[in-house]
C-alpha cells in the first residue's frame, strides 16, 4: 500500500510540473520596445520630412495648440522642437519606459532612432 501512494505522489509531482506556468522574460530592447533597427535608415534626417512626419503621427494631437488633447507644451514649429531637442528632454521623453511618449506606448524603435539621429546632428531646420 505504501508503495502505491509513493508512486501516486511521484506521478502527481511529475505531471504537476508539466502544467506549471512558465515566465517569459523580455530583457532586450527589441522585445521590450518593439521593432528593429534592421533596415532603419537614420542618415541625413530632415526635420521637414522624416522628423515632422513622425511628430505628426505620434505627437501632434497633444503638442499642437488648439488640438483637443493639447498638453500645454507646444512643439509644432521647428524652433519649439529644436529647443526641446537641444535641452535633452525630447530624447529622454521618447525613450522613457516609466512615462512613455506618446502615453499610449513608446514609438517604434526606428522612429525613435530617427529622431535621435536628427538631434545628434544638431536638430537642423532642413
Chain-wise SSE layout:
Layout: H1 2-18, H2 29-33, H3 47-58, H4 60-63, H5 78-86, H6 89-94, H7 109-120
Helix pairs in contact: 3-7
Would you mind describing this structure in some detail?
With 126 residues, the protein is mainly α. It has a domain at 44-126. Helix content is 52%, strand content 0%. The protein is built from 7 helices and no strands. The protein is elongated, with a radius of gyration of 24 Å.
**For the residues shown, what is the average pLDDT?**
82
Helical content, roughly? 40-55%
Summing up helix and strand content along with how strands pair, one would put the structural category as mainly alpha
- Largest sheet composition: none
Globular, elongated, flat, extended or rod-shaped: what is the shape?
A: elongated
The tally of beta strands, per DSSP, is: 0
Number of helices: 7
Span between termini: 85 Å
SSE pattern: HHHHHHH
Query: How large is the radius of gyration?
Result: 24 Å
Quaternary structure: single chain
Spans of at least 5 consecutive residues whose pLDDT stays below 50 are 22-31
List the defining traits of the structure above:
elongated, 7 helices, 126 residues, 52% helix, mainly alpha
Compact summary:
The chain has 126 residues and is mostly helical.
Amino acid at each position: 500500500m505504501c508503495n502505491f501512494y509513493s508512486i501516486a505522489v511521484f506521478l502527481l509531482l511529475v505531471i504537476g510540473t508539466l502544467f506549471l506556468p512558465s515566465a517569459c522574460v523580455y530583457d532586450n530592447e527589441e522585445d521590450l520596445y518593439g521593432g528593429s533597427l534592421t533596415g532603419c535608415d537614420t542618415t541625413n534626417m530632415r526635420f521637414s520630412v522624416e522628423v515632422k512626419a513622425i511628430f505628426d503621427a505620434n505627437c501632434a494631437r497633444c503638442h499642437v495648440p488648439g488640438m483637443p488633447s493639447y498638453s500645454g507644451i507646444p512643439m509644432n514649429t521647428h524652433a519649439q522642437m529644436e529647443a526641446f531637442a537641444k535641452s535633452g528632454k525630447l530624447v529622454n521623453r521618447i525613450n522613457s519606459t516609466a512615462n512613455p511618449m506618446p502615453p499610449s506606448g513608446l514609438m517604434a524603435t526606428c522612429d525613435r532612432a530617427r529622431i535621435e539621429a536628427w538631434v545628434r546632428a544638431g536638430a537642423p531646420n532642413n
